[in-house]
Amino acid sequence: MSINLIQKDNDEVAKTGTQSLEIELALFILKLKNGIWLAGIPSWLFGITDRSLAAFADGYLSTLEVFQLFTASFFFLSWLYLRPEHDLDNNDVDSTLYQGYLCPTQYNKLELKKRHMISQEYILPFPYLCQIYHLLNLKHLETIHKFSLNNLRVINISHFQPTAIGGVIKFQTMLDSPLNALRIWRQPIVEVDLILHTPYTVELSIPVYNNKRIVVMFYALPLNHREHQLFIEIYSDLEWPKPILQVLLHFASCLTLFEDLPYLRNLGEKNIERLFNMNLASNHQTMLLFKRFVELYGSSTKAPKLIEGSHEIEHSY
């Protein structure tokens, strides 16, 4: 029995040592890649500068010189695009080894960082609850975003689950037009998740091809009764070139916000607190998550107090 235990311990030690060597080797290769890439930048800059000075020395640019400059610039931009990752990638080392090498929190942060695409931050001159009403009202996808979503329709509410501080609603959306640009990364009919995590945090999770997802996190924080701060964070495991995906997501996010502004302005001009009256809240299925917010937090006079209360707790410490 003792011999077996010793043998088992020796095997585990050997396995751990092998895993550590693999991690160290992957880290060394990663550093080597970054070193070569960094060394290449001044080399390319020197080459382009040298060619430029030689081309303009006689005050005349020949076709050959223009071609040489264009080629050198193209390869330099390509070199910049080929920048290696700063952190270990699952392709560098087996993910199970990496997960074992790092503590769970570190590994989760790494995965989150890899999936993070863009961040946007705005201060909007509208009451905070205008944003909440907008985010939790599913019908606005069909009306306010009719242009950007190209006549997307909400066709069914498939699931609703209240939680202690929010709720989850799943709904099916359909792309009516065969020319809808959203078809480049999603099926015509998909089930989307909308989650109210806290009074200030809303998550929109959209399935795309090959079991991938695009997740949009909205953080709406009241600054006062007339302004709020909006943070937008978008994550995705979609296997597209990250720079291209980032450009597309930035454009899409800016376009939808531009569409939202007149809608938010109209809401701000109304008595927004009246919409958060439990007796007046709509019972329509598309408003279930909004109604859950009203049940939990009520009108706009209560929501800012939650933040004020958190500051009081911090000061007490």
Structural class: alpha+beta
Q: Compute the separation of the termini in Å.
A: 55 Å
Number of helices: 10
Q: Give the number of domains.
A: 2
CATH topology of the largest domain: Naphthalene 1,2-dioxygenase Alpha Subunit, Chain A, domain 1
Which percent range fits the helix content? 40-55%
In angstroms, what is the radius of gyration? 27 Å
Which CATH architecture of the largest domain would you pick? Alpha-Beta Complex
The pLDDT mean sits at: 77
CATH superfamily of the largest domain: Naphthalene 1,2-dioxygenase Alpha Subunit, Chain A, domain 1
- The helix/strand series, from N terminus to C terminus, equals HHHHEHHEEEEEEHHHH
Biggest sheet strand order reads 1-7-6-5-4-3-2
Could you name the key traits of this structure?
10 helices; elongated; Naphthalene 1,2-dioxygenase Alpha Subunit, Chain A, domain 1; disordered C terminus; 2 domains; 317 residues; seven-stranded antiparallel sheet; alpha+beta
Q: Explain this structure to me?
A:
The chain has helices spanning 2-56, 63-81, 95-101, 104-115, 128-136, 140-143, 242-269, 272-275, 288-297, 303-316, and strands at 116-124, 152-162, 167-175, 189-198, 201-207, 213-222, 228-236. It is of the alpha+beta class. It has two domains: 2-101; 117-316, Naphthalene 1,2-dioxygenase Alpha Subunit, Chain A, domain 1 (Alpha-Beta Complex), CATH 3.90.380. The chain has a seven-stranded antiparallel sheet with strand order 1-7-6-5-4-3-2. Helix 1 runs antiparallel to helix 2. The longest helix has 55 residues, at 2-56. The protein starts with a helix and ends with a helix.
